[in-house]
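Exercise 7.
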Amino acid sequence: MVQPEARVNLSTVEMPSRKGRLETYLWDYGDELSSKLAENFYDPSRPLCTTGVLIPVAAHQESEQIIPAMVEYAAQEGAEPFSICLLLNYPQDKVEESQASEFRVRAAMEAFPWLDIRYVKIGYKKETPIGQIRKDLWDGIMRVALADGLYSQPGTEFIGINHDIDTMQMGRHYIRNVQRFYLQKQKELFKSELAENPLPTAYTQVKHAYPFKTHPNVARALVWHDFTFRQQYRNGLYEEGLVVPFSTYAQRGGFDPQAVTHETHAFTPDAYVGIPGTAMDTSPRRYIVRLQEHGYKTIWTKDSFGPMDACRNNLDSAVDISKERLQDVVFETLETHLQTYVRGISPTKWQDIINEIVWMTIDGDSGLSAYEQGLPAIIRSRVEPRLRLARRVLREVVRLPIVADLVDESYIAHASHESAAEILKAAKKEAESYTQG
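Solution. The predicted structure, written as tokens, is:
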């Protein structure tokens, strides 16, 4: 038996440094290609900034998107310097088609010399997943960050912003507000003496641009879709615009190289945290091409997204959906969208009601039964304004009065009773945990 004076605390493990996390990740998951990319991204005369926008560009199809996107970055105000890192990728048999993208990147570099624009151009096998391409980009930039000494001091971090090249508009303080958000998060870690903890991921407020001039019914479908999910996720939800600090990227093992879509899934923010003041519009092109046939449910599929994506081509021939198709598309997922409006109610409002029921239950309050009977009316006072908003959007913006009329008094009453049942169930479960504990 070990004597008391000889015992050591075997459970104590020191927190790894962020630099150590990055180095371990690259040792385990990095490859030769990311090293070659890093050599080309590295600029000995210009160290990498601590904030970077990382964009894979389908160079054989996306040349027309490059200058408009760079204009938006050039117009940013109040931000600390940031780097824009472009991976111009193309199928190996599309070298000639990729030349225009490189020409436009060089034109942007000349037009906006104050921007730190870096690019690497590389051909891939035709079926290479986007997960692999995005991983190569992020791994390469991670190597540059280490080489430039960005992690030489405790509490330093590279903030990676996941963007695509089809950005159409950005709020003028988008980058500034991302930087301020993470500056505050780092201050909180210093205050807690946890300076080397990985910083959290976060969404930004990306939505689609609405093509009312060319495809008004697609635009109305998009307004309904975006506005609905903004009720529950007020500061963003989409993969584009996701912010991933490199320490967290390393901690979670990087992008899945096999992912054909949704390669950022591993970096979903806790509680879907987002950053206010980060408005950005991305292209509606995928909806323009696919909404007619697929509705909302299968806009993104493994067989539709790849190196020769049809939605990246000229959209002049893509016709608008009809009013009838718009109605069908909205109706197909109406119940799900309306539930999202209800879920947009602040969780603290629900918790206040749950707490009331819990304490009544624990105290054996004689008024509990009466409170439960009145619960649907209490819940309705919160649910009704949300559903009336949905009805108004359907009627006045989406211009579907027939669908709007489905959100009538009977539906509101039904939704209120359903929510009351869920609240009551949650409260009784919480009360049981108190009494049993």
